[in-house]
Specification:
Layout: E1 2-4, E2 17-19, E3 24-25, H1 39-45, E4 58-60, E5 63-65, E6 77-78, H2 81-87, E7 90-92, E8 103-105, H3 106-115, E9 120-122, E10 140-142, H4 146-153, E11 158-160, E12 167-169, H5 173-179, E13 184-186, E14 201-203, H6 207-214, E15 219-221, E16 232-234, H7 238-244, H8 246-313, E17 320-328, H9 330-336, E18 340-341, E19 345-347, E20 350-357, E21 365-372, E22 387-393, E23 403-408, H10 411-416, E24 432-439, H11 440-443, E25 453-462
Length: 466
Amino acid sequence: MAEKLTDSEGREDLVYIKTEDGSYRGWRVDLLVENLSNKLELKLLLCSSCKGMLRDACICEGELRCGVCIPEGVAWQPVKMNREIVSDKMISCPLKKRGCEWSDTVSTAIHHLEECEFFPVLCPLGCVCAEGERKGKAMKLEKRLIPEHQRDSCPLRELVCKFCVNKVKACEMDPHLEYCEHFPVLCPNRCVKEGYEGTRQLKRRDVPVHLADVCPLQKVECPYWEYGCREEMERKEMDLHEREFIHIHFRLLETDMKLKRIQTTEKISILENESESKTKELTTANTKIENLEKQITEKDSELKSIIEVLYSYTPLPLSAGQLEWKIKGVKQKIENKEDTFSDPFYVGLYKCQGNIEWNWFNSGVVGVSICIMKGGYDDKLHWPIRYKYTLILLNHINSNNNYEITNQVTKEDLEKSPNKFKRPTQLRNEGFGIPLLILDFEILEAKYCKEDSITLLIKIELLPAL
């Protein structure tokens, strides 16, 4: 519940007790000015637990104790009269031994301690002691010494590196200088700057460039190394070497050029041979492609002739088609008035699709139409198409009483709606059809609708072109 604060050396000569809420209670009697009248008064000022002077005292288990010395859960009773006994007594600053000359009544001591320059506080930056009995523990200093500590000795204070101008903590400055790219270092070859005595100093980051391009003492290879000159020397000796060995370097270059000329000739020969081979392969491939194209053209012509013959002399099965279309969920489709399309089917080589409109032109009548779809043989078929179709709504109760209706494409239909019967350019043409002359609610009668399904039979027969 309470913490006895100590000085920087760990001695408990700070005689107040600081509670968790920040208040101070309990003072040692020996710091009072010796003007107590009798031993009874002395006894009333002492806490039986911490032996400090009582302030905000209370009775607990028959003894006088400080409020902070009472264990949790133990009954206690406050003693108000004790505050008056203590508050007007004279007391010196608990930090008198450290040099504070303050003295006044106990009632004003708390306010003094909040401002006392000799009061020990933790370093605001959070540094720890590096040596002594408190090694590794938080650094405590007198309040008056904190500014100097933060300015001159705190290991966590920020310093500015004089080389790279970055901010670095004081304790990290030495390691920083080990890798600081702007830190001056000597050339590894200890080269001398022309016109100056001593060795050249460089920024650490410039050393690789210096060695690669500038340093006169750096070992380098002869520029003609790749041509056969295997001499290594310091950079400053390179000019002399090139002058002395110029004739050898020329010979090396001449030899290299001859070798490369031979290699180039060989490569050209190889490429020419490969080119001839590729040309032959390409010619063969083109011949094969031309033969295949001729065969395809001949087959297309034969197929077209066969289709024309079949359409001229064979009315079935190429000129007719049939679809038995079972439609489920009829009730929902009628309520939603949604168009319904069948699976594609073929009439000869013409690809078709059935379409039901449950509300034909908003009349409440069910309409059926035939849509011509885009197919794989369209370029070999005759357009526009003419056909005759029969729609049969099957009767599930009496098969002899089906609902049946027939229609066909006329010359007037071709003239009025040519786009419905021409060769499709999209997925499907607009449908051509007629109403079933039966209302949608009649479709739901038991004789047509079974288990919410109906069956529609579509028969189509192709007609000769007009």
